[in-house]
Write a structure and sequence with these properties.
Blueprint (H helix, E strand, L loop, with lengths): L2 H4 L11 H9 L10 H5 L15 E7 L5 E7 L1 H4 L4 E6 L35 E2 L5 E7 L2 H10 L1 E6 L6 H4 L15 E7 L2 H10 L2 E12 L8 E7 L4 E6 L4 H12 L6 E4 L15 H13 L3 E4 L2 H7 L3 E12 L5 E13 L7 H4 L1 H7 L8 E9 L13 H19 L3 H8 L8 E2 L5 E2 L4 H11 L5 H10 L3 E10 L8 E7 L5 E5 L9 H12 L6 E4 L17 H28 L6 E4 L2 E4 L5 E3 H9 L14 E5 L8 E10 L6 E11 L6 H20 L33 E2 L17 H18 L13 H12 L5
Parallel strand pairs: 1-12, 10-11, 14-15, 20-21, 27-28
Antiparallel strand pairs: 1-5, 2-4, 2-6, 3-5, 7-15, 8-13, 9-10, 9-12, 13-14, 16-17, 18-26, 19-20, 19-25, 22-23, 23-24, 26-27
Helix pairs in contact: 12-13, 13-21, 17-18, 20-21
Pfam families: Ald_Xan_dh_C, MoCoBD_1, MoCoBD_2
Keywords: Molybdenum, Oxidoreductase
GO molecular function, one term: iron ion binding
């Protein structure tokens, strides 16, 4: 259904009560269908590979087939001689450009700067992972470029490789960089070691767990692609590519190209998924922009799925040792963590965050935890670089805590639900200063916890467990609370433009890569200014139209862009009052605004905002000093992090003969603060839950000892499918945030956080009949079966 065609066309909606109808159907809190869906489901979306420019040519990247090696030479002569080939380029050709940057500088525990070795677009003397770009070919057709790429001859002497962070820190491990001893890029520390040690010394019980947070291939629907253009007369670059925010991508590219920001334009159309991976600049973008300048023609590059598996940044990959100190009654005293984060062959733009600060911010979750100590080493290995992936440390932190709680409950003989209750932060304690340094401004964690148990029918679980047993299945139930700390404040644009055709355009620096921004943003603007929903458009993917933009990530979009729209709307109202005062012949101080109309106080004389905009377009003459337009270009300075939270409960059935695990029941209660569009929010949770189930039960990127990715295709790397998806129960229990004007909290990553914890807790609960207390992700059939067989074996005396 095209929702634009169903809405009333009147711009004077409050005359006959239709304003109330309009807000009831399209206002904040209504489940309005996504504006873009009719276009996308009919196949009319415009993704990067759909773009073709006049005289464009095609690029193919030549990648290292070795995980580690010395580059002795690259023979390009045969490739250059092939038909249609316009250029073959190596590192020497790109020598004038800068390096790809890590955008998140950290300090080591001793105060020194972390090690970030220079990474250029093409490898020169050494390759450090399979897929490392070493050359690229440009030809008249894509087929000619592929043929030429295969004709490039690489002379590389293989070196020993290392793929696990724990192995890379060993004394005899291969060294990736001469100036990074022990392959440790960052030695991070948080917390008061002496106070934490004292808490552990006084503890009545200490629970310890060692976990592996497995590496994931992001595998979005749309592989990366880009088209580079160069205007020699203006010395101006244009890149068409996927991103999570064109303003930030422009800044990254300008820095690498050595250009002023206004000499670079980034355009992003529809994006088929990212989950963190497409937020950063990649070597391929520099390659095609260079070729565009050299050849004077647009250069197009589209990755294939095989290239995507080894060149797109991966997610997760942490090894961690955890300790939880408790008093005799099960109250938490302190948590201590020591982890190794795998960075891959280079430091990606935000790579250190998931393994360090985001664990600290999220591990305490909804529990009173007086002390936190976190030690983390970020380590280089001969693998594809790692970056933020849906949650970027938030799901992990919650997963670590919830696994500790279930284990501690079993060890201390305390009911796992009761142990959680004893440590919940009570509503009366909010605002709550957490030991992570964050202050929780809102929430009712105990209420959500109890409500979830009711809707999940935990009381009926034993009967369902007996039914499963009668069918030869093991049944387990897992509970997991989560609290996520969303992205920190950043500037965001709130632009409002009244168009010549009567539409109103929102301009924002966040970017929709699947979330559905156009609809909720329009709902916010419609409520703020009374503008008909069907007249509102969204511009988000053109860096030339932005004055600020933090991009989309960290569950921040509705909080940042929503607040920017609210503030920009207030400016529109102030300008409108000044203009309306002349139209209505009254003092500006006597003009009131409500429900889309400017009215002289105490009278029935008024003018609608859309009618006022039409008068301005028609040449309304206004005195000097009066605003001449309702348009606004505003920058919101950012709201503090918010704290979406909730509780998820799931039940699994396991076939002990095969180890196959199925999620058979799933319930959740979530607090996302004010919900702008419940339909979209529930969809976000569904997507996050499925990704969490994917990691918990099947996904795992595996390398061999030489650095070859063994799971390099969908034949080897398992992904969740429709049959993996249970019916996902969703209930909203909103407690609005107090730190932003809409009271929103964000929802994009929450499903993943909830699913990881409850699915794995359910798996372990089902296996507990064998005395199994822990199993690392993924709980694949082979792993579950092996764990059962090992548990059945007689234990050594």
């Amino acid at each position: 259904m095209n929702i634009r065609e169903k809405a009333p066309q009147s711009t004077n909606l409050d005359q006959d009560g239709s304003q109330d109808w309009h807000l009831a159907k399209f206002g904040v809190g209504q489940p309005v269908l996504r504006n873009e869906d009719p276009t996308l489901v009919q196949g009319h979306g415009r993704y990067t590979d759909d773009i073709n420019l006049a005289e464009q040519v095609y690029a193919v990247i030549v990648r290292s087939p070795y995980g580690h090696g010395i580059v002795n030479g690259i023979d390009t002569e045969a490739a250059k001689a092939l038909p249609g080939v316009l250029g073959v380029y190596t590192a020497a050709d790109l020598a004038g450009y800068g390096t790809l940057k890590c955008l998140t500088p950290f300090k080591n525990r001793d105060g020194s700067a972390m090690k970030v070795p220079a990474r250029y677009a093409l490898a020169d003397k050494k390759v450090r992972f399979v897929g490392d770009p070493v050359a690229f070919v440009v030809a008249e057709t894509a087929a000619q470029a592929r043929d030429a790429a295969e004709a490039v001859v690489l002379d590389i002497d293989p070196l020993p490789a290392v793929t696990l962070a724990s192995a890379a820190t060993q004394p005899d491990a291969p060294q990736l960089f001469d100036d990074v001893p022990g392959n440790v890029a960052l030695d991070y520390h948080y917390g008061d070691s002496d106070k934490v040690a004292e808490a552990f010394a006084q503890a009545a019980h200490v629970t310890r767990l060692s976990l592996r947070n497995t590496r994931l291939v992001v595998a979005p629907m749309e592989p990366r692609a880009a088209i580079g253009e160069y205007d020699s007369a203006a010395n101006h670059w244009t890149l068409h590519s996927q991103s999570q925010g064109v303003f930030g991508m422009r800044g990254q590219l300008a820095n690498i190209l050595g250009a002023e920001p206004d000499k670079v334009r980034v355009l992003t159309g529809n994006v088929g998924g990212s989950f963190g991976m497409k937020a950063q600049a990649y070597p391929e973008y520099i390659c095609i922009l260079h070729a565009a300048r050299q050849l004077g023609r647009p250069v197009k590059w589209t990755d294939d799925r095989s290239g995507s598996f080894v060149s797109d940044a991966h997610g997760r990959d942490h090894e961690i040792d955890l300790e939880l100190a408790l008093d005799k009654d099960g109250h938490f005293l302190a948590i201590r963590a020591s982890s190794l984060g795998n960075m891959g062959g280079f430091m990606a733009a935000v790579a250190p965050i998931p393994a360090t600060t985001n664990i600290v911010k999220n591990i305490a979750s909804v529990y009173r935890t007086p002390l936190i100590e976190m030690s983390a080493k970020c380590v280089f290995t001969n693998t594809t670089q790692v970056t933020a992936y849906r949650g970027a440390g938030r799901p992990e932190g919650n997963y670590y805590m919830e696994r500790l709680i279930d284990t501690a409950a079993a060890e201390m003989g305390i009911d796992r639900l009761e142990l959680r209750r004893r440590n919940h932060i009570a509503p009366s304690q909010i605002p709550y200063a957490a030991s992570s340094g964050m202050t929780y401004d809102s929430g009712d964690f105990p209420a959500l916890f109890e409500e979830t148990q009711k809707i999940a029918d935990m009381a009926g679980f034993e009967a369902r467990k007996r039914d499963s047993a009668a069918r030869g299945k093991l049944r387990g139930i897992g509970i997991g609370s989560f609290l996520e700390v969303t992205a920190p404040p950043s500037k965001e644009m709130g632009g409002i433009r009244f168009e010549a055709n009567g539409d109103v355009t929102i301009i924002t620096g966040t970017l929709d890569y699947g979330q559905g921004h156009a609809t909720p943003f329009a709902q916010v603007l419609s409520r703020s200014l009374g503008i008909p929903f069907e007249r509102i458009r969204l511009v988000q993917g053109d860096s030339d139209q932005l004055i600020a933009g933090g991009g989309t990530g960290g569950s921040r979009s509705i909080t940042a862009s929503g607040a920017a729209i609210v503030e920009a709307s207030a400016i529109v109202i102030d300008k409108g009052k000044a203009i309306a005062s002349h139209v209505l012949e009254a003092s500006p101080g006597d003009i009131e605004f409500a429900d889309g109309r400017f009215t002289i106080a105490g009278t029935d004389r008024s003018i609608g905002i859309m009618e006022l905009a039409e008068k301005l377009r028609s040449g309304l003459k206004l005195p000097e000093g009066t605003p001449q337009t309702l348009d606004v270009s505003h920058t919101f300075n950012g709201a503090p992090s918010a704290f979406p939270n909730g509780c998820h409960i799931c039940e699994v059935e396991i076939d002990p003969e095969t180890g196959a695990t199925e999620v058979v029941k799933y319930s959740s209660v979530n607090d996302f603060g004010t919900i702008i569009n419940p339909l979209l929010v529930e969809g976000q949770v569904h997507g996050g839950v499925i990704q969490g189930i994917g990691q918990a039960l099947m996904e795992n990127a595996v390398y061999d000892e030489d650095g070859q990715l063994l799971t390099g295709s969908f034949q080897d790397y398992a992904m969740p499918r429709a049959k993996s998806s249970p019916a996902i129960g969703f209930v909203s229990h909103p407690v609005p945030a107090t730190t932003n004007p809409l009271g929103t909290k964000g929802c994009g990553e929450a499903g993943c956080a909830g699913a990881l914890v409850c699915v794995m807790n359910a798996v372990v609960d089902a296996l507990s009949v064998y005395g199994i207390r822990h199993l690392d992700m993924p709980a694949s059939p082979s792993r579950v079966w092996a764990a059962i067989q090992a548990a059945k074996q007689p234990k050594a005396a």
